[in-house]
Amino acid sequence: MIHDQYDDNYILDILRSVKTIALTGASPNPARPSNGVMGYLLSRGYEVIPVNPGQAGKHIQGQTVYARLADLPVPVDMVDVFRASEHLSEVVDESLAMNPRPKVIWAQLGVRDDAAAARAEAGGIKVVMNRCPAIEYPRLVA
């Protein structure tokens, strides 16, 4: 798939079908975008599980933080990536190792790695890059 632009229906289908989200790179700092997006997604009824090895065992937005995707206690529908582009490949590898695999990997604004996206898609995972669900949700759903 070419990731320069997305059909609105592709994004809308993801936003409507996803219920549980692992948010990698979650920050306890309210000034950080990951914290605000996590709060927004929680307010829209999604279950959001923060993932950050430096915060494991603590709480962000009232949710217990896990060190790695492999540590999550429940399956997730989507992995939301708040990490730099050079880390997207490792998030894809972790996602591909999950059982069951997430349906979607969503890389935040400024995060893109086409080779990593192709690997995820070859493994049956939809990919969105350089977009924010907290921007797309009010545009398409609300």
Notes on the structure:
A 5-stranded parallel sheet has the order 2-1-5-6-7, sandwiched between helices. It has a two-stranded antiparallel sheet with strand order 3-4. It is an alpha/beta fold and 142 residues long. The mean pLDDT is 97. Strand 3 (59-60) and strand 4 (63-64) form a beta hairpin. It has a single domain (8-140), classed as Rossmann fold, CATH 3.40.50. Helix 1 packs across helix 5 (133-140) and helix 3 (88-97) packs parallel to helix 4. The chain is globular, with a radius of gyration of 14 Å. It has helices at residues 8-17, 33-43, 88-97, 114-122, 133-140; strands at residues 20-24, 47-51, 59-60, 63-64, 78-81, 104-107, 126-128.
Within CATH, the superfamily carries the name NAD(P)-binding Rossmann-like Domain
Low-confidence stretches: none
CATH class membership: Alpha Beta
Largest sheet composition = 5 strands, parallel
> What is the global morphology?
globular
Strand fraction: 15-25%
List the strand order in the largest sheet: 2-1-5-6-7
Q: Report the helical percentage.
A: 25-40%
